[in-house]
Design a protein that fits this description.
This protein is α+β, with helices and mostly antiparallel strands and 130 residues long. The chain has one domain. The chain contains four helices and six strands; from the N terminus they run H-E-E-E-H-E-E-H-E-H. The chain has a six-stranded antiparallel β-sheet with strand order 1-2-3-5-4-6. A hairpin with a 4-residue loop joins strand 2 and strand 3. It is globular, with a radius of gyration of 16 Å. The N and C termini lie far apart (52 Å). The relative contact order is 0.19.
Length: 130
């Protein structure tokens, strides 16, 4: 292997590790960064809004190491994944201003995943038990 190939492999390994630090797989979901402030919960099957909230809550507390009181905001409701191309994904953030969204009340129907809808990470994680 020449020096260029070794350097390319090393860069690919470092990039993979950097992304892996802000990624997670949990309960049928893969969470991937879309950019510096938006994350995408990608379903490996059919899941409702409560399951997306569960995955987001787990990610915020365990990967981002944020407080259970951290607010999670919907950036984009269910649709095609930007990070994997799968058909079922939703996007969220903990920084609505940086993501360019306006906080809005959470809908009574969790499956709607309306843009700006929000809840604490601890409440989102409660949906993991249902």
């Amino acid at each position: 292997m020449n020096k260029v190939s070794i350097a390319a492999c090393a860069l690919a390994f470092m990039a993979t590790n950097a992304v892996a630090k802000n990624s997670m797989t949990h309960a049928g979901f893969e969470i991937n960064p879309v950019n510096d402030v938006v994350y995408e919960a990608v379903s490996e099957g059919a899941h409702g809004g409560a399951a997306f909230w569960c995955a987001a809550g787990m990610f915020v507390e365990t990967v981002l190491k944020k407080s259970p009181k951290t607010e999670i905001y919907v950036v984009r409701g269910a649709g095609k994944s930007e990070t994997t191309g799968r058909r079922s994904a939703a996007q969220f953030t903990i920084d609505p201003a940086a993501a360019g969204i306006t906080p809005a009340p959470l809908s009574d129907n969790l499956n709607e995943l309306n843009v700006g809808g929000h809840m604490h990470a601890s409440l989102a994680r409660n949906f993991c038990n249902g």
